Amino acid sequence: MDLLDxxxxxxxxxxAFGLLLFVVAAGLSLAFGxxxxxxxxxxxxxxxxxxxxxxxxxxxxxxxxLGLAAGTAAxxxxxxxxxAATAPLARRGHLAQALLTxxxxxxxxxxxxxxxxxxxLPVRVPEALDSSVMLLGHRYPAYRLCFIVMAVLLxxxxxxxxxxxxMGAAVRAAADDPQMLxxxxxxxxxxxxxxxxxxxxxxxxAGVLGAPIIxxxxxxxxxxxxxxxxxxxxxxxxxxxxxxxxxxxxxxxQTLGVALAPDLAPYLLFAAMAAVLVLRSRFAxxxxxxxxxxxxxxxxxxxxxxxxxxxxxxxxxxxxxxxPGGAAWWRAAPLLVxxxxxxxxxxxxxxxxxxxxxxALALGLLAVSVTILTGYAGLPTLGQTAPFAVGAxxxxxxxxxxxxxxxxxxxLSALAAAVFAAVVGPAVIRARGTTVLMITLAVGELTGxxxxxxxxxxxxxxxxxxxPATRALWGGEEMLEESELYTYALVVAVVAVSVTLxxxxxxxxxxxxxxxxxxxxxxxxxxPVGRYLLVAHICxxxxxxxxxxxxxxxxxxxxxxxxxxxxxxxxxxxxVIGGTTSVIGALLGAGLIVATRDWVAxxxxxxxxxxxxxxxxxxxxxxxxxLAGLRGGAGSGPPPGLPAVEDxxxxxxxxxxAGKVSP
Length: 663
Known about the structure:
Keywords: Cell membrane, Membrane, Transmembrane, Transmembrane helix. This protein is mainly α.
């Protein structure tokens, strides 16, 4: 009884917090499960409602009602606008949607700060609710009890609309069979817009009502989005009741769990999310392939013919690319030009710009590792910052222990990252499609939780700084000048990229590409596809570890933000900018991102997120095949990671990509 009394208030807080997450997650689930839109700007829709409600709150019932109406309407309009923004991506799948909506979230977050300020806004509730009531012998805020009632009513109303009205029937029909819905005279596009508008309205209403609980401020949208994704994954997309209980469980972990087990609570949510996704994918049959099936000749036969140096259907060996001055030299030209430009940078740039170029090389290696997984293995990832972080913290701790020789740091960091990738790899390679994105996201967030909690190794939120500088070789001096650090980074990057290109263009790389394009046929031919994917995941992890080591050497400090979710999204964007199968394009994309984030934004202080958001949006719309697609070369085909890949795990919703809604 004493235990119940001691934790009653956190338990009730958990119910209130869980109901808030349920309302938000219901909108996210509606957008993804019904409209087929993976909306990473859903937290921004919540923030729109929260900021609007807080701005209009004046401590009266009228102010609360006005804020609720205005905040809900504003988020509803934003949701409808999201429908128009994602319509051109109807046939490009969830990865393109994720990048677009993340960019919109960056733009929206910057605009909200410009309008409402960077400080957390105070929220004034009516005097009757700004008090405490007795709850089983304990005083408890009246507003939170009122919010529990309002959230239950809102959830009940939404459930009634979805299950008992003609509008709800049209929404369910749009998810299950949009063609049949169109045959009844209803416009699936209008239903699609209405669903996203309703999802925005739910998020906005939750933002207004939840502002006194999760106030509008920096980080609010990302925190709400991540927790809502956990709820959706745990509850699935098929049952509102499952989502409801998952939200309550998440709310209790966030409040009661922190009180009972503060050391474990940060890991529980994303560990549970990853476990659920992995278990569901294990009970699913392997998908037919990562990308569209080629109905033409057997791809395995074509692959063997190419490896033998012959053109399929011909007895004449293929010499294309082997003749001096032939295709091989033409394909190598961009790499040679890029190398010349990189070598000449120290003579052209100031010290600060040179340091940015070194950081771009480190991010470029991370982007190349994402290229291996997304473009060649067909496993789109949002968690490659996890092995990147392992490599980075390994180098920082090695330096603190006196191991300052660069090659030693690189080798041990790559080994640590490879071991990490080998441990988590089996959970990743079994899944396909959107489930891969979610699992890798969970792995990345779990790694972030470890970074913040394991202060003896990572320094926690303060990061690591002050460790000895790296020496390029045994017996050499510490590298302190920006030009020295850049030259070291360039040499490491050239070696790493050269090895990567050799492997990807070897028979092993071609077999990996074969698993992406025709997995079922590769399996039928006796190829150990799982082994290929696991090896690719380990090698990509090692390369990311090298990138993390390089970043620490160049920056001479390490903070949690350097290995967070935002960096993972930047790496994925760099891959899309360059073309998902273009290694050089990934490097160029990384350079463009660093230049936008740190150099261009320097001339417009405080608007870095806005510029990056514009870069996200422009890339998705203007470069559907990346820079490589502009010249029609390698990597110019349909981006392997972008088409909607059917997720056949039991956790997946009835597949309704936006392409089925659009005409």
